[in-house]
Every structure is written in C-alpha cells, then in structure tokens.
Amino acid sequence: MTHELEPVLARIAEALERLAPARAADPAFASARLFRHDPATSAFHPAPDYPLPLEALVGVDRQKERFVENLQRFAAGLPCNHALLWGVRGTGKSSLAKAAFMRVAEGAPAMKLVEVDRDQVTELPGLFDVLRAHSERFLVLCDDLSFEEGAAAAKALKSALEGGVSGPPANVLFVATSNRRHLMPRGHAEDRGLIALAEDAEEEVSVSDRFGLWIGFPPMDQPTYLDAVRGYAKRYGLKTPDLDRRALQWAQLRGARSGRVAWQFIRDLAGELGKELPM
C-alpha cells in the first residue's frame, strides 16, 4: 500500500510547490541607495538617488542640524532615536529626510533608505525582521503617516519600534513624517464617556511616544518663503526682474507659503524660461 501511494503523494507535493508563491529573491542592496518595499512580493525596488541637495532647503536650519546629527550617530553605530518630523504640509519634512540621508550616505556606503507606504505599516514587524539579517544600516521612511482608524496599524508600529521579544533591529532607524504631532485622530465620538475619552487620549500619545526625537516644522513666513524662492532661483540660474512679486502672487493664488509652494513656483518659472530642473 505504501509503495502504491508514493507516486500519488509525489504528484500532490509537486502540485503544491507549483501553487506556492515564488520565493522572493535576495535583496540586491548593493545596486542602489534608495529602495521602495513591496510587502505583497517582499521585493525591494531600487530608486534613483534623491536629487535635491540639503543646502537647497531654506528656513529649516535648526531642523536640518538636529536631524543630520541623529542620522550621523546612527550611521556610526552610536545610540540614536527614531524620529518623527511633524508640522504643516509643504514645509520640507520628506525632502529633509531624503536630502539628509543622501548627505550622510556619502560617507557611509553601507547606509540604505527603504521607503514604505503608510497603508502598509502593519507589515513593519516583518520588514524589520528581514532587515535585521543584513549587514547594511537602514533608514526606513514612512511619509505622511497617520492612523485614521487606529488599532491594527498603530499596534504594529508600536510593536516594531519597541515590542516583541527580539526588540527593534540595531541596524534600523525608523523615520516618519506627519501633519500631526499625535498620529492618532481625535474626536471619534462626542458622546463617549470621560473615561473612554481619556483612554483615547492616552492611546494617541502612546504611538508618538515611540519616537524619541520629535522635530517640528512651523508655517513659513513671507521673508523665509522669499528666501527659498531666491535660493532656488540662484541655484538653477533662473532670472526674472520681478521675481519677488511673481513669487508672492503665486503664493496668494495657492493660499499658502511653504517650501513646496516655492518649489512649484520655481518649476513654473523654469518651464517658462526653458530651463531644466533636477526633479
């Protein structure tokens, strides 16, 4: 009976192997410095180097200094903190994270940046386990992070940064950008009791508390906005006699002043003048 079943069992095993998903290829971290992680396939897709230099970011000198200092410690294997860059939109949080990485990586070839989508935060514990097994040092970046419905994603993040028996990998630094200092949304229901509301507030703070370094980005005032426009214009050789006036009109139409608005104005001006930009 055993001999009769062996061919059948062998065919079943072969069929199951064909149905199983293909094993993910080993990450080729030597091929690039920036990667995007796809949890569906466990793949790391290489991306081009970030082109905007750190010097081009205007009005955030204090934030640059503090973030670069923390990143340099991580590159050197010294104690450092996971970082939350928070503040109003368009103030350069994501640009600072990527430009600072490029600066520090110039002197640290083993540094890699892996970007994850905010909707895939639940995959962070598994990603950290994968990165733990590699010799490189990884800055894992999640842009525009928030937890609209809380629960699973927030617990996964807390577990990745502090929880679990193995703890967070020593070769991983997690950096998130957000428009909120407290990542959990407030005020789900006004008719909840005081105890429930107090517990919600505690949960809100508990997620942000996993970040040892908070760096705030306040709104940009008019002089700083114009400094950013002038700095970009000088760097890329864009000349127009009414630069300030046109930049202010652009900001008025957008209803905001920020580094992003300044860069969008510069892109429009470069297109008008027939000049190319790096991004």
- Say what oligomer this is: single chain
* Top CATH class of the largest domain: Alpha Beta
Name of the CATH architecture of the largest domain: 3-Layer(aba) Sandwich
Q: What does the radius of gyration come to?
A: 23 Å
Total count of domains: 2
How many extended strands?
Answer: 7
Please provide the ordered H/E string of secondary-structure elements.
HEEHEHEHEHEHEHHH
Fraction of helical residues: 40-55%
How many helices?
A: 9
Tell me the CATH superfamily of the largest domain.
P-loop containing nucleotide triphosphate hydrolases
The CATH topology label of the largest domain is: Rossmann fold
Q: Structural class of the secondary structure composition?
A: alpha/beta
Spans of 5+ residues with little confidence (pLDDT < 50)? none
| Strand order of the biggest β-sheet | 2-1-4-5-6-3-7
Quick tags:
2 domains, seven-stranded mixed β-sheet, 44% helix
Task: Write up this protein.
There is one protein chain. Helix 7 (222-235) crosses helix 8 (243-254) and helix 7 runs parallel beside helix 9 (259-273). This protein is α/β, with parallel strands linked by helices and 279 residues long. Strands 2-1-4-5-6-3-7 form a 7-stranded mixed beta sheet. The chain has helices spanning 2-19, 61-75, 93-105, 124-132, 151-161, 194-208, 222-235, 243-254, 259-273; strands at residues 34-38, 43-47, 83-87, 111-116, 137-142, 172-178, 213-217. The chain starts with a helix and ends in a 6-residue tail after the last helix. The protein has 2 domains: 29-217, P-loop containing nucleotide triphosphate hydrolases (Rossmann fold, 3-Layer(aba) Sandwich); 222-273. Strand 5, helix 5 (151-161) and strand 6 form a beta-alpha-beta unit. Helices cover 44% and strands 14% of the residues.
